[in-house]
What we know:
Layout: H1 11-14, E1 23-26, H2 36-45, E2 50-53, H3 64-69, E3 73-78, H4 85-92, E4 97-100, H5 103-115, E5 119-122, H6 129-132, E6 136-139, E7 145-148, E8 154-159, E9 162-170, E10 174-185, E11 190-191, H7 200-206, E12 207-218, E13 237-240
Parallel strand pairs: 1-2, 1-10, 2-3, 3-4, 10-12, 12-13
Antiparallel strand pairs: 5-9, 6-7, 8-9, 10-11
Helix pairs in contact: 5-7
Amino acid sequence: MSHIDKVVATATEAVADITDGATLAVGGFGLCGNPVALIEAILASGVRDLSVVSNNCGVDDWGLGLLLAAGQIRKMTSSYVGENKEFERRFLTGELEVELTPQGTLAEKLRAGGSGIAAFWTQTGVGTQVAEGGLPRRYDAEGRVAVASPPKETRTFTVRGEPREFVLEEAISTDVALVHALRGDRHGNLVFHRSARNFSPLAAMAGALTIAEVEELVEPGQIDPDAVHLPGVYVHRVVEVGTDSPKRIERRTVRPTEPDQEV
C-alpha cells in the first residue's frame, strides 16, 4: 500500500481518538449528506462536552440529534434549528449553548478557517443583533438569558463608490471534521452526491483532523481530477460505509392521487 493510504477499517477506529471537549465541524444540510456512521461511532464512544459546528442538528432520532439526545453536545453553532424538538427543549432549559449564525456567514467562516484566514468583513447581519449583540446563547433553568452574544466590530468600506457598513466575522477552525461522500479514493480525494455537497467540503476544510466516510472506495487515479470536489490534502482518514448507507427524508410531502390517475 502507498504510504499516503488514508483508509481505516471501521468508523469506530476512525473516531477513536476524539476526546471529551473536542470541537467538531460536521457536513450535511438537514438530513442530506449526514456522516451517520461516524456520528453513531461517536455516540457509542461516549465522549462528551462536544462543541459542534453544523448547519443544523439533525432531528430527534437521526444525525447529530442522536448525540444531542445522549447529552454529548455542549454547544451548537448552527444556522437552522427548526426540526428538532429536543434541541428546543435543551436550549430553553439551559442545557445547550447555541450560537445562531447566518447560513452564508457560517459557510464562509468554515471556508476561511480552512484557508488560513482569521476573519472577514460581511454586510450580512449589519443593523441586527448579529452585529449589535444580545442574541441569547444560553438560558438558565428559569428561562432567563444567561449568556448573550457580544457586539461585533463594524466598519465602513466604499464599494463601487458607495459607503457601506460591514461587520467583522471570525473564521471557524475545529479539532475534527466529519463528512459523508459518495466516492473517495485511498488518498482522500472526495466526490459528493449532488446537494449532499452543501456544507461538506467547507466543514472538511475547517478540521485539523478530517474524517470522511465514503459509500464507494476506489483506487487512486479512478476519480477524474476534474471531478474531485475536495482534494485529499484536506482529508486524513477515509472509511468505507457501503452503498446501502441509510438515507432519510427530513419532511416527506406528497399530493393525493387523483381518482383517474394510475398508481
